[in-house]
């Protein structure tokens, strides 16, 4: 077990917290502040503990000077201050005299947010490359390091692994919760049902390999289902196809014929538009110029009847183009079923969590993970560097 923020005396300490404030921003406004909201318990604990609270986060990718302007964290500092109901100082730099002086002049209980850690990627990828000198410098600013950014736990960056190398370290409440909930999938209670959607098979190969022996059924929808249907010899028209992984799909179907459940019927259209005319057809009746964009009613009934048997459910990826209202029904109706069954339901991966938020089901399931790639790598059975680097509880 890893140390947590509870295991430290924070009074009169400088506590560095790696958060995940990588929020979507459009036209200068934050359009979803969930990642800021979920960081609040850890930050408040550090404030209440009487420490100077020094926050790190990335925002987007920074490859050009233009990216720096677009991914400035000052907007997050403002929103965080509103949520905490106190001023959050903002330092528009990632290192240097202004940063050091600001920290020196803080009172205990104050909070400061440092500029986007990926500004350090502009010259030599020092953040994402876990530059040793940068990690050591950031560590020199504090006494204790707390990692609470599950979304980047699968990456070895200077702002997580780098800092943890040089300071006493623990995890925050968000990561603690993620690890607790995801551990349900280590040895899941049966029946264990997996729901997989999204567009490409290649993104799910290791997930399928790791879960297929644990799962009672794997329900496959979304764009990736057409690669599996193609592997069975079905004409999928112009539907999305991951051609490189047809052989993998074929081998999984052949090796686990009783576990893999594919769509029976789908909504097809000739154009990738919400307003395009569509029809519901059996998967064997897709025309050459048609593409599948959603599940049909029979498939929804089939998936939902299987979900009713579940004790544990893991779901990654939407089951159709949920961004289009005419093609959101499959994702919505299966989410609706998942929200009412007496099972532990875990949503993992950014797209299905985004869909569940938009469709109103995120808070009606057991757990909606804040990690995209980190969640998938955990499910694949991989070690997460950002967690491994944290001190163990002896």
Could you please describe the fold and organization of this structure?
- Strand 15 (312-316), helix 13 and strand 16 (344-347) form a beta-alpha-beta unit.
- The protein has two domains: 5-176, Phosphoglycerate kinase, N-terminal domain (Rossmann fold, 3-Layer(aba) Sandwich), CATH 3.40.50; 186-379, Rossmann fold, CATH 3.40.50.1260.
- The protein has helices at residues 34-37, 40-48, 65-70, 74-84, 97-105, 132-139, 158-164, 173-182, 205-211, 224-231, 246-255, 297-307, 329-338, 350-359, 373-379, 385-388; strands spanning 14-18, 25-26, 29-30, 52-56, 88-91, 111-114, 144-147, 169-171, 192-196, 217-220, 260-261, 265-269, 278-282, 291-295, 312-316, 344-347, 367-368.
- It has 394 residues and is α/β, with parallel strands linked by helices.
- The chain is built from 16 helices and 17 strands.
- It has a six-stranded parallel β-sheet with strand order 5-6-4-1-7-8, with helices on both faces. A six-stranded parallel β-sheet has the order 11-10-9-15-16-17, with helices on both faces.
CATH superfamily of the largest domain: Phosphoglycerate kinase, N-terminal domain
Describe the global form: elongated
Compute the number of structural domains: 2
CATH topology name of the largest domain, in short, is Rossmann fold
Separate helix tally: 16
Instruction: Give me the Rg, rounded.
Output: 23 Å
CATH C-level class of the largest domain: Alpha Beta
CATH architecture of the largest domain: 3-Layer(aba) Sandwich
Number of DSSP E strands: 17
**How confident is the prediction overall: mean pLDDT?**
95
């Amino acid at each position: 077990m890893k140390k947590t923020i509870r295991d430290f005396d924070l009074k009169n300490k400088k506590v560095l917290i790696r958060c995940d404030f990588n929020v979507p921003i459009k036209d200068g406004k934050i359009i979803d502040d969930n990642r800021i909201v979920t960081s609040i318990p850890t930050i408040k604990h550090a404030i209440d503990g009487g420490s100077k609270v020094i926050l790190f986060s990335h925002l987007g990718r920074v490859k050009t000077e233009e990216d720096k302007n677009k991914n400035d964290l000052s907007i997050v500092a403002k929103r965080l201050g509103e949520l905490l109901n106190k001023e959050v100082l903002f330092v528009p730099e990632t290192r240097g005299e202004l940063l050091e002086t600001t920290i020196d002049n803080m009172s205990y209980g104050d909070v400061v947010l440092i500029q986007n850690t990926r500004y350090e990627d502009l010259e030599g990828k020092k953040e994402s490359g876990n530059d040793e000198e940068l990690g050591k410098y950031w560590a020199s600013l504090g006494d204790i390091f707390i990692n609470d950014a599950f979304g980047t736990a699968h990456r070895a960056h200077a702002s997580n692994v780098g800092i943890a190398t040089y300071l006493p370290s623990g995890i925050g409440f968000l990561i603690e919760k993620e690890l607790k909930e995801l551990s349900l999938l280590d040895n899941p209670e049966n029946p264990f049902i997996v729901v997989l959607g999204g567009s490409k098979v290649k993104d799910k190969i290791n997930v399928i390999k790791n879960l297929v022996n644990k799962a009672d059924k794997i329900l496959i929808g979304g764009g990736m289902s057409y690669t599996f249907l193609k592997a069975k010899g079905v004409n999928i028209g112009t539907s999305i196809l991951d051609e490189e992984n047809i052989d993998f799909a074929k081998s999984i179907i052949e090796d686990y014929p009783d576990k893999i459940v594919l769509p029976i019927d789908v909504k097809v259209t000739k154009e990738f538009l919400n307003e395009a005319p569509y029809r519901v057809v059996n998967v064997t009746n897709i025309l050459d110029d048609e593409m599948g964009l959603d599940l049909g009613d029979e498939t929804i009934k089939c998936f939902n009847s299987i979900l009713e048997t579940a004790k544990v459910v893991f779901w990654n990826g939407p089951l159709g183009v949920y961004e289009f209202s005419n093609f959101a029904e499959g994702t919505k109706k299966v989410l609706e079923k998942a929200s009412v069954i007496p099972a532990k339901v875990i949503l993992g991966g950014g797209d299905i969590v985004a869909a569940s938020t938009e469709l109103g089901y995120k808070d009606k399931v057991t757990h909606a993970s804040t990690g995209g790639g980190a969640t998938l790598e955990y499910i694949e059975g991989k070690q997460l560097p950002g967690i491994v680097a944290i001190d163990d509880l002896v």
